[in-house]
Amino acid sequence: MRQISTLLSVAGLLAGFVVAISVLSGDEQGRVNLLYLLLLFVFLPAGGLLLSVVYLFRQSGRGLAGWILELPLWPVGVRREMLALQPGYERKYWLFYETQLLALAFALGGLLAFLILLAGTDISFVWRSTLLNATDLLPLLQILALPWRFWTDAQPDLALLQQSQDFRLAEPQFTAARLGQWWKYAIAAQITYTLLPRALLALVAHSLFQRRNAAAQKRPGHRVLHVDAMNIVPMQGKLAPLAGSVPEDYVMIDWANIPPTIKAALEKRFGQPGSFLQAGPLTEPEARLSNRARDVAVVVMVKAWEPPMGELGDYLLKVKPASSDAPGLLLPLDWDGEGLRPVKDVNLREWRRFCGTLPGGWSVLQAQGNAGAAA
User: Fold this and answer.
1) 224-to-98, 110, 187, 199, 351 alpha-carbon distances in Å
2) Per the confidence metrics, is the pTM higher than 0.85?
């Protein structure tokens, strides 16, 4: 998990550096649009903070880090480490913490690019607008500057704002030294609205995650993630048991849009399900299971070659809570144009390790023998 945190932080740092360089490079004359600067250093960070808080209060909120980690670009080793995360609140708080580190690294990359450009180039800050004039824009800039009102040199004034307004056909009348005075305002805005809030939220996220793990230690049979300083080290997970049959009465859930021919073959193999539900990350799930359906076995079909995702773990916790005594069976499937194929051993192990993290005793159901040893 240390590797995942490092990769996310490096990716955020590089992304922030590249984005800031592209915005701060300006036009062919080196002029940077002040309004674009406000968008990058004030409004986007404020919107990102709001989204982070919203995701925190959602039951299955993943945040930006969760979306990035579910991209099919990560190596197999990283995907397997993700399986060690306990589905539910532990994973949600860890993803919330990683999102703050990612955003903080992005902000540091932007600040680094800004300082490099200030030291090595001559930047002129201007602004252009068809609808606004200097008197319209000044109150907004003054409100944004209230947190650093003690820094007089970084406060906006009407004369500088009027001199900074750029017209397409106008001749430049002021030197870069005069227009470059906006850098103090830009630095103060970035520290106030990006770096400090993200650093504070990262500390809060770290504390929330530690408290959640401390509470989890008191629950019997619950595997805990340990946080060492800024790193997270998961304990080794167990492999869930294999199953070759299902009870006579069961509910079938399609998580991966299985072809009709494969579904027909499964019905011949396991029998007709009592009910069938369509679900998945790209579809809206049908009506929730009835109370009766929650008392029977649940079989969830997935694509064997795709890595288990956090969204699936959250869905399985809703379908079969830990308090339910009904069997939960995950059915990884592999197929081609001729029908079902044996699931590869590496994929079977991955799904067994995933089911081993789920509370309630989930098992992995096999439609056919696997391609290698499953031990």
Assistant:
1) 18, 36, 41, 25, 20
2) no
